[in-house]
Amino acid sequence: MGRKGGIAARFQSFDAYAKTLDDFSIKTLSGGILTVITGIIIAVLVANEFLAYRAVELLPELVVDKERMEKMHINLDVSFPKAPCVLLGLDIMDSSGEQQINLFQHVTKTRLSTTGDEIGIDASDIDKAKVQPPETGEDGKPYCGSCYGGVPPESGCCNTCNDVHQAYSQRGWAFTDPDSIEQCVREGYAKHMKEQAGEGCRMRGFIEINKVAGNFHILAGETIKHGSEHMHNRYEYMPSDYDFSHTIHRLSFGEEFSTQSNPLDGVSKTAHQPQAQFQYFTKIVGSEVRYLNGTVLKSNQYSATEFAKGDSPASSATGPSRVNPGLFFMFDISPMRVIYTEHKRSFGSFLTAVCAIVGGIFTVARLVDGFIFRTERVLQQKRELGKLA
After folding, report:
1. What distance lies between CA 201 and its chain's CA centroid?
2. Which CA distances in Å does 355 have to 51, 210, 360?
3. Mapping DSSP to helix (H, G, I), strand (E, B) and coil, where does residue 205 land?
């Protein structure tokens, strides 16, 4: 027992937390108030530290973009309150020389009324409302419509107005007179065109491009491709009263992540002249988000500037403009990539911070309490000696 007591006594000599007997401790009003305030401060700081511990941060890192042969999705949602759907085409040109004409495989065009309400008819293909071709021709054989000199499809027959239109496009011919084409007369092609005069249009969907510099544009009229170039023609049967006032509801490049900001979302422009052409110049920076669960999301961010041609009163005063009215998006690719990595604090760092808060607040509070107590005692002694009124 003596030996055990000796060992205990030795450990007792290392006690850094010497205890004060209750008979020698004094509790004061100021000490009680300070204890309550200290408890509240500790609770608030520990709660904030817990929220910071649970939060997930995205830490950015800038590296050289080494990705090659990438494709990029452009997510598009733009409305034109004064341009009918049948008039609008969507084309892409890039620095590799590739051209994509009338990209409506994944983009829908919805007609808008003069008040901006959606009419609810998908106008991406005017032939959706077409009259069915006859089953047999005048000779009693299965009907096979003429392509009127255009490049025929694999079937060899152009049974619809759109088939003839495509045949003309393959040949590089302009589709100038649909009223002279039997299929178009039967389907009322020119009539459908005129019915949409005064309407608006909303384009929604995505397009896929090579990740190289280039542009995509929305212009009025028929797109005709000649070799490495293409042009846009407007004809008498097309609506003529339109402009390219627009609202960009959404424009992004690739998948989006939570903290991403698209600077052109919500941008709205009003054309003051019918020949106004709006241009947006974007600088695209590749982005990558690496999540804690191992998932990797590849996306793109961009900055943007804008410019308008032919939209000032001076433009109309100088006579007819050579500016082709429309909406252009030019994009350039940055050689850098931003990698965001999800980071979450460890439990050990949270525990360390809590201990620092509790210990630090209690230490400061004890110093303040001691100062207040000594001050009160000095004032009390002076009052007893009559030195303090």
Report:
1. 21
2. 16, 54, 8
3. strand
Biggest CA–CA distance in the chain, Å, is 133
Phi, psi of 252 (to 5 degrees): -145, 160
Among 228, 249, 252, residue whose Cα is nearest residue 101 = 228
* Rg, Å, the chain Cα set: 38
Measured CA to CA, the distance from residue 134 to residue 266 in angstroms comes to 47
- How far apart are the C-alpha atoms of 40 and 49, rounded to whole Å? 14
Per-residue pLDDT, averaged over 363-368, amounts to 88
Query: 184-209: per-residue pLDDT in tens?
Result: 888 888 887 778 888 899 999 999 88
Nearest to 203 by CA among 80, 332, 355: 80
For helices 347-385 and 29-54, angle between their N-to-C axes, nearest 10 degrees? 160
- Among 16-25, 212-221, 265-274, the minimum mean pLDDT is found in 16-25
User: Which residues is 63 bridged to in the sheet?
Assistant: 337
Measured between alpha carbons, how far is 202 from 246 in angstroms, rounded to an integer?
A: 9
pLDDT of residue 78: 96
Residue 322 has pLDDT above 80, yes or no: no
| Number of alpha helices (DSSP H) and beta strands (DSSP E) in the chain | 7, 15
Give residue-wise pLDDT tens across range 64-93: 988 776 788 899 999 999 988 888 888 888
Q: Which DSSP symbol is given to 197?
A: T
**CA–CA separation, 375 vs 368, rounded Å?**
11
Are residues 331 and 304 in contact, defined by beta-carbon separation less than 8 angstroms?
no
The H or E element containing residue 118 is strand 118-122
For residue 80, the one-letter residue type is F
Task: Give the C-alpha separation, 18 to 123, whole Å.
Answer: 86
In this prediction the pTM is: 0.70
Residue 124 has a pLDDT of 43
Say what percent of the chain tops pLDDT 90.
24
For residues 151-160, give the mean pLDDT. Answer: 88
**Average pLDDT taken over every residue of the chain:** 82
Show the tokens assigned to 360: 């630090």
Token couple for 256:
């989006």
